[in-house]
Write a structure and sequence with these properties.
The protein is α/β, with parallel strands linked by helices. 37% of the residues lie in helices and 18% in strands. It has an 8-stranded mixed beta sheet, sandwiched between helices. The chain has a 6-stranded mixed beta sheet with strand order 12-13-17-14-15-16. Strand 7, helix 7 and strand 8 form a beta-alpha-beta unit. Helix 3 packs across helix 9.
Length: 457
């Protein structure tokens, strides 16, 4: 298959990421806390066996959590790569292309390799007794790619929860749980215990566990899983300083093996300092020793995280953040208030996916504090219609403008903004993905015009 045919074939399989309400389908986000009815790793295990169990060809770091797992995965992969290991990185969702999810030594998988591996997988499917989902197929493709290129370690981000996620066929050397939150749950009853139990499912007897927050009352659920050791942020790993710096954070961390003073991280938000500390603990656990401070400093000096409080342009300032739940959006607003002076107007472009309470999401983002709010419908099967979000905003006394198409909503935001204004795009990785290409292309075009201006040389 060529890449177009391969991706069409991939899309012909059940898209559990695209439908949160497929009752009884494996891997589906369930409406009740931690519900796992009908979930099974059997299809993934069967598929990988037919492919020669490629996931067993390298060591692994497995990362789950309600928020921060994607950033932490990128940080861990970066640190490991600085030690000259060959490193694979598997994350989800993608912003613009499937290729983004499968990375080896800092490079996306190319179209030719992705198409070839998907063709290989298609050829073994007739031998299967169970039909895999799209996410399972893509996860298998990542495992095959990492085995083919000779990766020595793979950093694997969980798609959903943990215990029954398609990625949980690996026996992780290091199992990271960043935090526990209400995403994909009704928030009723003992939801924290249920979610903790599902995320703890990535812990294996040979895993060293890293907890990226204080787990409090649910710590006993983590401890009940057999493991080598458990390090928790605030105990074995401590953040000594996590301060706003010029263009990012300055973070100091102590760990069981050492200390790392004044590491500059070119990312905004206190939570990114927490993710950095979690990643340091994970990589120390992987090696069983401290890391060279210069190596750590170099690893983070120029790191970029697309779609995570990403400043894509100035004049006006345009920020993209895929915060997809109330906790994430509250962090976005906290970061915005801390790191950006309010010089001009603030314009919000926002859209949400099904399974979220629009009012709760708008409240978490403090949408009423923006000078203009433009509501759109993300280009995704689970999108909440813009009109529904606008109604929730109106009920909160917030005036909005409805521009259903995300790209047109962004164009509208730019049209009403002057150079000193700020535009925030938030609500889901999918809305960020819808807008990111056009946002960057506009910025690049303006930069090109500036370069041609004789005033600028």
């Amino acid at each position: 298959m060529d890449i177009t045919t391969a991706l069409d074939w991939l899309d012909s399989h059940t898209n559990l990421e695209g439908n949160a309400n497929l009752a009884g389908e494996r891997g589906t986000p369930m409406p009740t806390a931690g519900a796992t009815d009908d979930l099974s790793l059997a299809p993934m295990q069967e598929l990988l066996a037919l492919l020669g169990d490629p996931h067993q060809a390298y060591r692994t770091v497995h990362i789950t959590g309600t928020n921060g797992k994607g950033s932490t995965a990128h940080y861990v992969a970066r640190l490991l790569a600085m030690t000259e290991l060959s490193v694979g990185l598997y994350t989800s969702p993608n912003l613009e292309r499937f290729n983004e999810r499968i990375v080896w030594d800092g490079q996306w998988i190319d179209d030719e390799d992705l198409a070839r591996i998907l063709t290989l997988i298609r050829e073994v499917l007739p031998m299967m007794t169970l039909r895999p989902s799209r996410f399972e197929l893509l996860t298998a493709a990542a495992f095959v790619h990492f085995a083919e290129v000779g990766a020595e370690v793979a950093v694997i981000e969980v798609g959903l929860l943990g215990r029954f996620d398609a990625t949980n066929v690996i026996d992780a050397d290091v199992a990271v749980i960043t935090n526990i939150g209400k995403d994909h749950t009704d928030g009723l009853g003992n939801w924290q215990e249920k979610i903790a139990s599902e995320k703890a499912g990535i812990i294996k007897p040979a895993s060293h566990v890293i907890l990226g927050s204080a787990f409090g009352d649910v710590r006993s659920i983590i401890d009940a899983e057999p493991s080598i050791a458990v390090w928790e942020l605030g105990t074995e790993i401590e953040i000594v300083a996590n301060e706003l710096g010029v263009g990012g954070r300055v973070v100091s961390v102590t760990t069981p093996f050492g200390s790392y003073d004044e590491i500059f991280l070119p990312m905004f938000g206190e939570h990114q300092g927490t993710n950095l500390a979690t990643a340091l603990g994970a990589v120390e656990a992987f090696f069983g020793r401290s890391l060279d401070r210069d190596l750590v400093e170099s690893a983070f000096a120029e790191i970029e995280l697309p779609g995570r409080f990403e400043v894509v342009s100035r004049e006006p300032t345009v920020i993209l953040d895929g915060g997809h739940n109330p906790d994430g959006l509250a962090t976005v607003k906290q970061t915005l208030d801390e790191a950006f002076a309010r010089v001009g107007s603030w314009v919000l472009v926002v859209g949400f996916l099904d399974g979220k309470d629009p009012g709760e999401m708008l409240d978490a983002l403090d949408a009423a504090d923006f000078d203009a709010v433009i509501v759109c419908t993300p280009t995704w099967s689970r999108a909440i219609p813009a009109e529904v979000v606008a109604k929730a905003a109106a009920d909160m006394g917030i005036d909005t403008e409805i521009v259903a198409d995300p790209v047109e909503a962004f164009r509208r935001a730019r049209a009403v903004s002057s150079d000193e204004d700020l535009i925030l795009v938030a609500g889901s990785m999918y809305i960020v993905g819808n807008i990111r290409t056009i946002a960057r292309s506009v910025a690049e075009a303006l930069d090109a015009e500036e370069d041609e201006d004789p005033v600028f040389g």
